Amino acid sequence: MKLQKFFAWIAVVIGAIYFIVPLIGTLEFSLRMRRDAYSFDAYASVFSDAHFLYAFGYSMLMALLTIIFGMLIVVPTAYWVRLRLPQIRPIVEFITLMPLVIPAIVIVFGYLRLYNSSSILPLTGFEQSTNFLLVCSYIVLSLPYMYRSVDTAMRTIDVGTLTEAAESLGAKWTTIMFRCIFPNVMSGVLSGAFITLAIVMGEFTMASLLNRPAFGPYMQLVGANQAYQSSALAIIALAVTWLSMGLLQLVSRFSKLAPVKA
């Protein structure tokens, strides 16, 4: 037993070294923009760049829209499949897994072929419609993670009993969905939202080919021309991810303490 614990700790230490050492190296390199001294010049250069603020804000907006619309699609679908159509659950799970099998570049080339400026539905011909197409692309990419997070959270509640109780009190479908189901699967929604945020902030292929000013293409552009600033951007992106993870854990802890709503 002690030998197993010893090897378990060895594995943990090796894993920690594997992840932490490159991060320390990246952080140390980002502080060496000034010769023979550590400084935050690279970070000051990044934050003073108007393109950084625009790209970061744009990706955060796209992430917010992706989370909202993805939630409005996934939660009712998972609820209806679990309550009324359990026989098609394997089909729905297969469909939600397709984005893991089909590369993002194949999906975006399909969008460009279907929705180019000379097609019947020229979404890529206008800025706002291209933004809408990008949000749809992000929803597709996040679908496997959002659906499974919500479906796992829905397994922990008695969907049938909640629905019957709400219907016996005269609740409509919208009331059941937004006042009974959503509050009880919020931990799954938040888990999917965190993964969606990470996907959107780091995604490059779709934003680049759709010619959108997102954070991923901006990081690639800076990395190709400015070494210290690209390292600073990597640390900033990691800090945003860790902050999101901390907020997720905090909200999940409060949701576990909250009573189940009927």
Automatic annotation (TrEMBL):
It is found in: Cell inner membrane; Cell membrane. One of its GO terms (cellular component) is plasma membrane. It comes from the Bacteria. It is a multi-pass membrane protein. Residues 56-249 form the ABC transmembrane type-1 domain. The chain crosses the membrane at residues 6-25, 60-79, 91-112, 132-147, 185-210, 230-251. GO terms for biological process: transmembrane transport. Keywords: Cell inner membrane, Cell membrane, Membrane, Transmembrane, Transmembrane helix, Transport. Pfam families: BPD_transp_1 (PF00528). The keyword Cell membrane applies. Belongs to the binding-protein-dependent transport system permease family. This is Putative spermidine/putrescine transport system permease protein.
